[in-house]
Write a structure and sequence with these properties.
This protein is of the alpha/beta class. It contains ten helices and 16 strands. It has helices spanning 3-21, 58-65, 93-100, 119-126, 137-143, 145-153, 189-200, 209-215, 280-290, 302-311, and strands spanning 35-39, 44-49, 76-81, 104-109, 130-133, 157-164, 169-171, 204-208, 230-234, 253-258, 269-274, 295-298, 316-321, 330-331, 341-345, 348-354. A nine-stranded mixed β-sheet has the order 11-10-9-8-12-6-13-16-15, with helices on both faces. The two termini are 38 Å apart. Residues 8-124 form the CMP/dCMP-type deaminase domain. Its EC number is 3.5.4.26, 1.1.1.193. In the N-terminal section; belongs to the cytidine and deoxycytidylate deaminase family. In the C-terminal section; belongs to the HTP reductase family. This is Riboflavin biosynthesis protein RibD. InterPro entries: APOBEC/CMP_deaminase_Zn-bd, CMP_dCMP_dom, Cytidine_deaminase-like, DHFR-like_dom_sf, Eubact_RibD, RibDG_C, Riboflavin_Biosynth_HTPR.
Amino acid sequence: MCYFYRVKIHEKYLLRCLQIAGNGLGSTAPNPMVGAVITYNDRIIGEGFTSPFGGPHAEVRAIDSVRDKSLLPKSTLYVTLEPCCHFGKTPPCTDAILASGIPRIVIGLKDPHDKVGGKGIAVLENAGCEVITGILKKECREHHRRFLTFHEKKRPYIILKWAQSADGYMAPDPSVRTARPEPYWISSAISRQLAHKWRSEEAAILVGTRTALEDNPTLDTRLWKGSNPLRVLIDRKCSVPRDYRILDGKIKTLVFCTEKNAPQNTEGILYRTVSGGEPLIPLLLTTLWEEQLQSVIVEGGAKTLNSFLGSGYWDEIRIITSPVHLKNGLVAPKITTKPRYDFKSGRDLVQIFRND
């Protein structure tokens, strides 16, 4: 078999690994959402993706899915990320691979986790397995971007998201809002559902004081099936009333405030103190990293979003632009770069930007 043919075959099956790996989005953290495929004679005989945290990893699920286990010693395992070689919630995946007798493993990326970092590859090679690495490396890095950002940059993957009118406003003039704090919907119903899907895919959701006071948001995933992200509130002076939804304790919530204003922790509400003289964003991100949160979606308000933009701490921006015109109100942040791609969501335009 020529080298070119083998490389194309490897790409084919790693693309399938990436395809099925996406099924774990939003449920596997702190584990990466890995995809695995097992082939025999150019035919897929087993597949698996990472279970919700605490369950079997992709490699184990792929091995378990093979009906005829006698084929495994003559098969190839494809996996998007280096198999783990340490005990966590589950035994090492390298143990399961070696026990199965699979002789060849094709890996997209080396795992940057300090407990793996090439050790899994070494275990397999030392046991006599053929290990091929670096196939579809760019695509695998894209897929594992949350996990890689967390371990390589020691912070969560940061998504900035907002909805805006066609004339560039995030919210109308206060005079047209009701006296009772409630969200003012700019985007369509289908886009709001999309936003809840996005929430279900991330570990945390963050807003500033003004958004909490003016919108009294719930910050949950009620319009989409999925886990609620941890809620994060920047409220230096603790000015958000305790009867507001974000402080109802129904979803775990972190509140960042100055030390002199910090109340006692209560059920579901944890306070983290920050110094008024230090830059807030790096300190906040370090705390979220220490809490093992691999991603955060920042939903407002304009001051908070502009703080992230100005600091350079962002990886992705998602803007939903509605065709409505507000004529006046809260100006949305300005982006001068071109979007990576865009698509329609009902009547709205969704633009995705990346900080490459």
